[in-house]
Amino acid sequence: MINKAYNYLPILAISTAEMSALEQLPDKSKDLLLPVFPLKGWVGSKTLDKTISRINMSIGLRPWIADIDSDFVFKNKKYLADPKGQRSVFREVHKLLEPANGYVNWVQYVANLDDSVIPTLQTHNLEQLGQQIQSLSALNRGLVVRLKIKQDGADKINTIIRTLIESKVDKLLILLDFEDIKRSDVLQSEQYGMLVSRLSKLLPNAIFSTSASSFPSSFSGSYRGELPIYERQLHTAVCKLCEGVRVIYSDRGSARANKPNSGGGLPPARIDYPLKNDWRYVRKEFQDSSNVTELEKHTLYKEAATEIVKSNYWNPNLRVWGVQMIEKTVELRDKYCITSANRATAVRINIHLYQQLNYLCDFDALDTEEDWED
């Protein structure tokens, strides 16, 4: 399944914004996309099967890559202090992270999912890594290995690569995850390109992918502007340095890799408009973020949307759900227009996914019109 001609592997969080954005993509776009879902509980659900149901609703009966969101358990102070007092989904995810017998719980869990679901190797504990590789490979779905370049030390990465070579895995995807990055990371692209080249010689049958996010955690002090998509720059530079190696683009769908804790008060009304190489945005401040009326929300989101639609970067020929939502907000056509930060995030991610999926295409020549429902 990994060998199919996918050109985009976004790592998407299990959240309402990401799932809605993906769900509203045209079906023909979903066919070319292979998302990575780090599994955790869905909103307030008690069991992990609700998460799988929401993923299936967003992408349909198509292949996707399954990983585990370890932060859901290991960075949850309430759960760690009182495991039995929290929703059972926390214990369910925690069980998948147990390394015993080559992560046998994880292997069995993936085995019970649809055959189109591709597993990710768990590398928190490497003691029985070879056993886990053999067990997951035996599912015959392919294997994804996610190397967290900034977190995993050289010794850990060497151990993983050496064990993969010894295991002679056929269908293999190596995902180099740089997580949150800045411009300085792009300047180091030569060493990352050399890394991919070395790995491709050691694992000649492997496909590679680079993933990162440069979306800012704060927009304070700015009214409007543009932000370069450094993850796209990093990927382009790496590809130039290792010609002949298949390297697929990946990112966080225009979300942060490590999401910051939200502060107090309602965030300002901001609408983002993704382009292929940068994000444009317009931001409007509420008079008092602790006391915002529905009228003020509608008014400021309408003002932001209107400014974007009138800008020189607006493309009226891009007919995807996120664009239509911005147009609805300009007209305040119905209750489904953008009136919250969460909906604005879903709109941005939807447009970003489409832009990056069709990075090499001329949008004016594409048929992006598709019927959709709220």
Automatic annotation (TrEMBL):
One matching Pfam family is Beta_protein
What InterPro entries does its record include?
A: Protein_beta
Q: Which domain of life is it from?
A: Bacteria
What's the protein called, per UniProt?
Protein beta
Q: Which organism is it from?
A: Salinivibrio costicola
